[in-house]
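hey m, so remember when u said the tokens were messed up on ur end? i reran from scratch. heres the input so u can diff it against urs
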Amino acid sequence: MATAPDALTPLVTQFFSVFCNQNGKVVHLETLHNLFIPGAVIVKHLGDDLEVFSLDNFIKPRKLLLTDGTLQDFEEAEIRHQTQLAGKVAQRLSLYKKSGRFQGQSFETFGIKIMQCVHTPSGWRFSAVAWQDEGPGFDPHQAFVNRNHLLD
């Protein structure tokens, strides 16, 4: 088992790349089942609202968005990260950028993901992912700079 903080990088890179549909790339969101443990939780924080998903409930609407033409040329990529490992559990704070065209309108935004991972016989897998995109009252760049408050 890799114990260096970069041990999660292949998992995280694969996670972000699953959503990419740039240049007509076909997305295979079913791949996410290989990246998460059964029962994993995914949480989206939007303003004062939380959306909590099982993996299948997370995949279904995103698959439609990424394949029906609503969300085109989409790419999401990690810009910076900090990883904490403790034996076979780990936590990663990720500053990311996403861009594309939503209903024909170009966009670019940033956000923070906090990913909790566990080491399984098959390697590192996500047990939970929570994220918040930039918006009123939340600057992900500043949150990352002040990350010691997030991970302490």
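this time it looks ok to me. The longest strand covers residues 71-86. if urs says something different then somethings off w ur setup not the seq
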